[in-house]
Amino acid sequence: MYWYHWTTILALSICLSVLFWHFIRLIRLGKPKDYSRKSGSVTEGIVYSSTKAMVDHKESAYLHIPTYFAGMVYHIGTFVSLFLYVFFLLNILIQIALPQWLVWIIAAGLLVSSFCGFSLFMKRLLLKSMRSLSNLDDYLSNLLVSLFQLFTLLNLLYSSSIEPVYYIIASLMLLYMTVGKLKHVVYFFAARYHLGFFYGWRNVWPPHKTK
Predict the structure, then answer these.
(1) Which of 11, 19, 25, 47 is deepest in the core (most CB within 10 A)?
(2) How many CA atoms lie within 13 A of 203 on its CB side?
(3) DSSP state of 7
(4) CA 164, CA 134: separation in Å to the nearest integer?
(5) Cβ atoms 149, 120 nearer than 8 A
(6) What pLDDT, in 10s, does the model give residues 86-124?
(7) Are 124 and 131 in contact (CB under 8 A)?
């Protein structure tokens, strides 16, 4: 193993430790307390919050379908890249060859998702309406994840020449995840749970069909 392998393992260890600490903090906070009179199903509200509400009722997403679609592809690409990151680390110890047809499918998908990521970054950078809503954390998070996806693609195809740069970028992203908005990978699920609890308790979610 080379120095950049040890560097990324250290970054991964720090990242997982900090995210686990955030998770424990959430667990210790316990369930939400609502003192209003219950009129709906909390369970149905939570299920709706984590499923259909993410598709067609997420804030104003329905007004920005191309951007919303790009964001969905971008997030899928991030999860695929993280899976490949673990695969690459395991491959250092145990040589596992992916079928070539699968490599090309994944590469095509990551090309699309990284393009979506950089497109969202440029939209945030160039549109005045987006700049007014953005801060440094938004830019850094978007850029690091987009670079991570792009170099995951490159490492998949040209690992012998790109590997050191790939692991450096992966390490930077993992370390930034502990302090920036990327740690919403933990808080996202708690947020959807709290939303579902709140609106389910009040019988607002799932929405009732009107005749």
Answers:
(1) 11
(2) 7
(3) H
(4) 31
(5) no
(6) 999 999 888 888 899 999 999 999 999 999 999 999 999
(7) yes
Token pair in block for residue 43: 């369970």
pTM for the whole thing? Answer: 0.87
Tokens of 172: 């930077």
Reported confidence tier of residue 59, pLDDT bands at 50, 70, 90: low
Enter the tokens of residue 169. 């970028």
Residue 57 pLDDT > 60, yes or no?
A: no
Going by C-alpha positions, the residue among 153, 82, 62, 70 that lies closest to residue 119 is: 70
Residue 98: is it exposed, middle or buried by C-beta count within 10 angstroms (0-12/13-18/19+)?
middle
∠ CA(70), CA(195), CA(113), 5° rounding? 15
192 C-beta neighbours (distance < 10 Å), count: 17
How far apart (Å, rounded) are the C-alpha atoms in residues 72 and 94? 32
